[in-house]
């Protein structure tokens, strides 16, 4: 039996408001998305945003969308410079850049749906 590593190829955020999250992540990622109000993709970031209520999965439990939360981690060249850029763009910062005990420097933001 051959075994190979499973690689994360992307993340899809489910939302009832694609436009709102697209605008937010365009600022966070500093790139434009491709798509529409049902499904939009940030190809360079391997991130998709999808509204299952308008798309093919219309029978799912939409209340579950509001109950889930997760963390996405993005790598940037300079956290402090990115902090300044996001502040200038009006993004609410949850925690300012700080050195973490595990050897990284990080900050935290929440998207408009609390992820």
Brief digest:
The protein is α+β, with helices and mostly antiparallel strands. It has helices at residues 18-29, 63-67, 79-88, and strands at residues 11-14, 34-35, 39-42, 47-50, 93-99, 105-109.
List the helices and strands and how they pair.
Layout (H helix, E strand, L loop, with lengths): L10 E4 L3 H12 L4 E2 L3 E4 L4 E4 L12 H5 L11 H10 L4 E7 L5 E5 L6
Question: What are its keywords?
Answer:
alpha+beta, single chain, 6 strands, two-stranded antiparallel ribbon, 2,3-Dihydroxybiphenyl 1,2-Dioxygenase, domain 1, 115 residues, 3 helices
Write the element-wise H/E pattern from the N-terminal end onward.
EHEEEHHEE
**How many alpha or pi helices?**
3
Helix content: 10-25%
First and last CA, distance:
38 Å
Describe the structure.
The protein is an alpha+beta fold. The protein has one domain: 2,3-Dihydroxybiphenyl 1,2-Dioxygenase, domain 1 (Roll). The protein has three helices and six strands. A four-stranded mixed β-sheet has the order 1-4-3-2, covered by helices on one side. A two-stranded antiparallel ribbon has the order 5-6. The protein is globular, with a radius of gyration of 16 Å. It starts with 10 loop residues before the first strand and ends in a 6-residue tail after the last strand.
